[in-house]
């Protein structure tokens, strides 16, 4: 019996090794790449960068016209991934590694905006951040879905640009009210009002 | 996935940064790219990304990576106060020494068991280490967090009992004799702790126990009546009272303790 | 899950105190009848030792219950919900010596009930913001006093708080670190209500948008650093206009000789 357990144990170890060795970085998905990066695999990191940076760059550039800032955020993001890959690998299970890559980059983009903003805006009425999910948010979740249905599409298209901007920042990019306010350079109260108007408009268009 | 992959032209316009893409299309492209690796691969490498890589690659050499996380540690600190570890170890050592002394002095006059004498106050030490200004350097910070409060304190107390109770059980002492006093003292520490601070409560109760039970027992060389079956209702009542006070004063654990 | 939009609760000020009194011990009223409002920006809390700065910050951090008066934070959220949006660095910042920087900040993120998924990136970001990325996995006992302060700041900002309370955060920082810390304060102040207690008047001049001056538990002055400076004249002691203003206000007609 102990013999068997020992054999089983070494079999598992061998299997793990095989799995780790097998497959070039090119064959792995992003989650596996991050796990490899966590073990210090430079090739895996390069592959992860090669695969995700074009997308991340474009997405950042569409939110920030300053190439300098985009480059800064890119570098900080991937350096953080390199440094803390082990922690990220643990939390990215089940979720998409690409999704949290965006989250990391998005927070840093906001930080970069904060650095630039300093005291440009006068303090205005603050607004409590969302606490619970409202029932209407289910509607917005349909919007986030991969396919945008015709009705939702029409509703989005007819939305005023400033409302759409807020909706995009909060729903698609996952920013909070405060972060959206920094990103768009408008007071939090305005963000909140626009978000509410956008939601009402969407609901009306969909009903 | 049966997603609609964006067409070549739309993707090119998106990557170029065109701002005349219809809102719904833009939205669909962005959320699609987040989930579709092949489509991400269709994007042409960006010059910015390439410049950044040129800067980044040499940096990796000098940038240390975090060591493998210790997930057990995270699970442990969710239950055991980070300060309680040494105290729990000490409790086990004390139990071990008590058992040893009991075995050595079979002559124990009147059959007093040292294990029994210390059993009720053992968890008190662990509880004091789990929530209190004196023993926990992060007490004030912990008290300011949303997780502070009775649930956290009870969690940590449960962890202490999870060490103490099996430890005492392993000594072979009669379960019926020590379990109830042990629980009553634990509840008492928290109940009193809500009023005067857990550390003070622990000291007070240990002193009370030593003066009222241990000292007479040693002086008179006979097993204290506190462990008689007749005392069971008293212990049960004490436990119930302790729990009641804790329940009534549960918000005490969300603020700084009374002792300063 | 992504952030979602819900019905708004608007409030004019992040912090609103009315006739606030906080008793310490049996008799001493450490904060006595303070009425003030604070919004976004960096608020410097000044005052001599024993003026009640720490007690006021503790009350704002919700660890001390006001004896009387009202204290409304973020429009009056339920305590637990409110605490998720507060960052706090106590004056005597204690830590667990055997934890690494990352483990400690992670532990605090857990205590602050942050969603598990967000924790690794939030922790990494907080550590980077205080400039400790290279020491992230070193044990706390190996760090210098200035670095430990920065760990304290990192744990305070890890949950991206709407109200950030820092009690003497610059103690132990060397001049270069203080400069970087002021930059971080200014950055945080753009969308956070930051309250910094300090006895270093130059910190206030450099980073604060607003100054609150306490003496004997009472509010002596609230205004901009410029207004504080304007209160002083050449006759008052001090090396800078702000220091002279500080001395002037503390040595006001009612409290001459006390400092």
Automatic annotation (TrEMBL), chain B:
Listed InterPro entries: Anti_sigma_zinc_sf (IPR041916)
Superkingdom classification of source: Bacteria
Bilayer-crossing regions: 76-101, 107-132, 153-172, 178-196, 203-221, 233-252
UniProt keyword annotation of Membrane present: yes
Keywords, alphabetical: Membrane, Transcription, Transcription regulation, Transmembrane, Transmembrane helix
Keyword Repressor: no
Name this protein carries in UniProt: Zf-HC2 domain-containing protein
UniProtKB/TrEMBL annotation, chain C:
Transmembrane segments: none
Keyword Disulfide bond tagged: no
Top-rank taxon, per record: Bacteria
GO molecular function, one term: ATP binding
Family matches, as Pfam families: ABC_tran (PF00005)
Family, per entry: Belongs to the ABC transporter superfamily.
Protein name: ABC transporter ATP-binding protein
Protein species of origin: Lentzea miocenica
């Amino acid at each position: 019996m102990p013999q068997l357990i020992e054999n089983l144990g070494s079999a598992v170890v061998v299997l793990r090794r095989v799995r780790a060795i097998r497959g070039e970085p090119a064959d792995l998905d992003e989650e596996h790449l991050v796990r490899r990066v966590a073990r210090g695999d430079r090739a895996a990191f390069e592959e992860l960068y090669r695969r995700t940076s074009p997308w991340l760059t474009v997405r950042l550039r569409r939110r920030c016209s300053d190439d300098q800032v985009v480059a800064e955020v890119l570098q900080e993001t991937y350096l953080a991934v390199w440094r803390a890959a082990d922690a990220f690998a643990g939390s990215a299970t089940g979720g998409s590694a690409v999704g949290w890559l965006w989250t990391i980059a998005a927070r840093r983009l906001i930080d970069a905006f904060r650095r630039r903003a300093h005291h440009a805006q006068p303090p205005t009425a603050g607004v409590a951040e969302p606490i619970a999910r409202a029932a209407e948010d289910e509607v917005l979740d349909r919007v986030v879905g991969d396919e945008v249905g015709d009705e939702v599409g029409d509703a989005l298209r007819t939305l005023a640009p400033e409302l759409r901007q807020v909706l995009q920042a909060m729903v698609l990019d996952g920013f909070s009210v405060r972060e959206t306010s920094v990103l768009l350079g408008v007071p939090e109260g305005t963000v909140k009002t626009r978000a509410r108007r956008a939601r009402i408009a969407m609901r009306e268009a969909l009903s | 996935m049966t997603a609609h992959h964006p067409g070549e032209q739309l993707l090119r316009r998106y990557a170029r940064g065109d701002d005349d893409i219809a809102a719904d299309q833009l939205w669909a492209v962005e959320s699609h790219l987040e989930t579709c690796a092949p489509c991400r691969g269709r994007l042409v490498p960006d010059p910015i990304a390439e410049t950044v890589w040129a800067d980044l690659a040499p940096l990796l050499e000098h940038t240390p990576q975090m060591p493998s996380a210790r997930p057990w540690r995270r699970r442990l600190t969710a239950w055991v106060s980070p300060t309680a570890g040494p105290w729990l170890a000490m409790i086990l050592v004390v139990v071990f020494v008590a058992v040893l002394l009991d075995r050595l002095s079979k002559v124990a006059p009147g059959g007093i068991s040292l294990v029994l004498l210390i059993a009720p106050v053992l968890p008190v030490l662990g509880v004091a280490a789990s929530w209190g200004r004196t023993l926990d350097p992060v007490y004030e910070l912990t008290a300011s967090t949303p997780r502070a409060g009775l649930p956290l304190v009870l969690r940590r107390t449960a962890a202490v009992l999870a060490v103490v109770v099996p430890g005492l059980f392993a000594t072979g002492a009669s379960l019926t004799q020590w379990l109830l006093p042990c629980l009553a003292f634990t509840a008492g520490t928290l109940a009193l702790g809500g009023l005067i601070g857990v550390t003070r409560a622990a000291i007070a109760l240990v002193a009370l126990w030593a003066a009222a039970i241990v000292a007479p027992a040693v002086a008179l060389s006979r097993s204290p009546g506190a462990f008689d079956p007749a005392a069971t209702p008293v212990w049960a009542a004490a436990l119930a009272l302790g729990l009641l006070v804790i329940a009534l004063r549960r918000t005490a654990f969300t603020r700084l303790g009374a002792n300063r | 899950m992504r952030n979602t939009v819900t019905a708004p609760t608007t409030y004019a000020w992040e912090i609103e105190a009315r006739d606030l009194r906080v008793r310490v011990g049996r008799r001493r009223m450490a904060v006595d009848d303070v009425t003030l409002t604070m919004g976004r920006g960096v608020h410097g809390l000044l005052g001599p030792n024993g003026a009640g700065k720490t007690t006021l910050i503790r009350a704002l951090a919700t660890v001390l219950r006001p004896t009387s008066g009202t204290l409304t934070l973020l429009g009056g959220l339920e305590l637990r919900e409110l605490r998720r949006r507060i960052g706090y660095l106590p004056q005597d910042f204690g830590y667990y010596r055997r934890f690494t920087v990352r483990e400690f900040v992670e532990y605090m993120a857990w205590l602050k009930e942050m969603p598990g998924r967000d924790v690794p990136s939030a922790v990494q970001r907080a550590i980077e913001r205080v400039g400790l990325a290279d020491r992230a996995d070193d044990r706390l006992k190996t760090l210098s006093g200035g670095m430990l302060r920065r760990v304290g700041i990192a744990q305070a900002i890890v949950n991206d708080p709407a109200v950030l309370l820092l009690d003497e955060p610059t103690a132990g920082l060397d001049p270069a670190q203080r400069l970087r810390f002021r930059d971080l304060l200014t950055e945080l102040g753009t969308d956070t209500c930051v309250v910094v207690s300090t006895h270093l008047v130059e910190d206030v001049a450099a980073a604060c948008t607003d100054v609150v001056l306490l003496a004997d538990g009472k509010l002596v002055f609230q205004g901009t650093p410029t207004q504080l400076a304007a209160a002083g004249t050449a006759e008052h002691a001090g090396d800078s206009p702000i220091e002279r203003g500080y001395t002037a206000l503390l040595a006001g007609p009612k409290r001459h000789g006390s400092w």
